[in-house]
Request: fold
Amino acid sequence: MNRLPLLVLVVLLAGCTTAPQYRRDGVTPEQHARDLSECDLEVQKSDAGTCDQKEVLTRCMSARGYTAVPGTGSYGAFCP
Reply:
């Protein structure tokens, strides 16, 4: 049995579910990790669907002074 198509599918799907990256000048790596963790918790507590999770995370991180790095992260091929 040829497993190549399955491997390609897994790799493509993994690339579609990465979180966006956020940047804020002057923040320590520990503070960045803490802020991201707290915002991830907000996403988990929300009833947002897959496509809306990125928006919830971005709003939370923006409220903490971060900006999303363009071209990073996606929550699925069918999300805008």
Observations:
- Confidence is low (pLDDT under 50) at residues 7-15.
